[in-house]
Here is the input.
Amino acid sequence: MLRAKKRIVTRHEENPILTAEAFPNDIVTVFNCGVLKQAPDKYTMVCRAEDTNLDRYMWVADSTDGVHFKPRPEPVPFFMDDPVYAQYVGEGRSYHDPRITQIDGEIYVTHACHTSHGCQMGLMKTDESFENWQWMGLISWPDNRNGVLFPEKIGGKYWRLDRPNVRGAMDIWTGQSPDLIHWGVPRCIVPQGRIHWCYTKIGPGAVPIRTDEGWLCVIHGVRTQCTDFVYQLGVMLLDLEDPNEVIGVANRAILWPEKTYELIGQTPSVVFTCAAILEDDGEVKIYYGAADTVQCLALARVEDLIYACKHE
Ligand code: BMA
Here is the structure.
């Protein structure tokens, strides 16, 4: 099928918008950051930042325009007083890929962590200042990652997207919970083979965006190009009342590695998202990590993304 326009997403002209140079200490990479817009002039980013020892930090950065972010002086403290965190997550090497969701005024951050049993999902909570943190626990079995919470309860339950690794298949699933800690009702909603360029893996990306037409979700997909993985971004639309109902998944990729900073870095040929924000004028800011090295921003129109989900 021929699609109408080649590009429905454009890169911000100041890309990469955040690099390791903005951080103190020996931070060498910053990517796959979560972002929350709390007010017209208040965007808060939780960065994945890594140092020369490959120790991983969550690091808060602030912005008034959603483009220029200034990291705070210190990272989020590790939760070593929590025995489960200390045993499973530990200090430094494990937790990453924060996704920030505000639900009923509370701010939650899901993350992945490499425990001794494989990759699991953890949950943190903070407040509007992003200064006070609580670790809420592990919320998945191994092997699961890319967990992202919907920004409101649906049918009285919390909902999430995640990507368990089931017998080698890496698909998009939903789950439901009464309390954000205990999860069940797993459903596979988009298998990896459904979209051609996601034949190796498909997974959730940004926090779902409520639109009149459904939950708009920026996702990632992976193909194997010769010997390497290539990470690209796509979009899907889910029913507002029942996210297990897939209205559509665009069969086009919306962003793929092309720029030098996406093709060359710690991991070559990667664009990967943990955050997308719908602005009042219909612009969607898609925050993405490039080559697992720098943080970037891309822009789209919400109607183009929805059209792609429904008609392409
Ligand atoms: C995925 C995640 C991301 C990473 C990507 C590319 O599996 O672990 O954190 O950006 O691989 O390396």
